[in-house]
# Entry
Amino acid sequence: MNEGKKYDAGKPMMKLIPPHAEMELAKVLTFGAIKYGPDNWRKVDQLERRYMGAAMRHLNAYRQGETLDAESGLHHLAHAMCCLAFIIENSA
# Structure
């Protein structure tokens, strides 16, 4: 029996993304899509400056002992991760 071939060597190992963190990020993205519309973040003026500020606010709240965002009920670190993902995606 012949086995199929798939050349994965040297490619990113997507399975290494922690699943809980990935799910929390998806929850924040879903919250934002419902509130603002899917992909609305792409239209934000001065995207990097504004999302960096938002990420820092979420990190600061977490550092002060607040785990969940008051408005969304979702993890502050997932919000920060989302903001940083927008910045990375925008600079690609």
Remarks:
- Helices lie at 19-36, 47-63, 76-91.
- DSSP finds three helices and no strands in the chain.
- The mean pLDDT is 96.
- The first helix runs from residue 19 to 36.
